[in-house]
Amino acid sequence: MKILPPTLRESNRYIAFSIQSEEQITRRDLINEINYSTTALLGDVGSCELGLRLFSFEDLKGIIRCTADTTWKTRAVLASVYSIKGIRTRIKVLGISGTVRGATEKYLLTESINEAEPERKITQESIECTIAINAINIHGSIINYYNNKIDLMLKDRQYIEILDRSNTGYIGITVFDLKDKEID
Amino acid sequence: MGIIKRSKFFDLNVHSLPDYADSPGRMVLEAKEMAYSGICLTSLNPSNSFYDPNISSSFYKNFEIYNGIEIQVNNISALNKQVNRLIDKVDIILVSGGHEKINRAALENQKVDILARPASRGKPLNHVLAKAAADNGVAIDFNIDALTMHARGSRINTLAAMRLNVRLTRKYDASMVLTSSARSHYDLRGPREMMALGMLMGMTQDEALCALSIVPQAIIKRNTNKNRIMKGVEIVDMVEVVQ
Question: Is the N or C terminus of chain A more exposed, i.e. has fewer CB atoms within 10 Å?
Answer without folding.
Answer: N
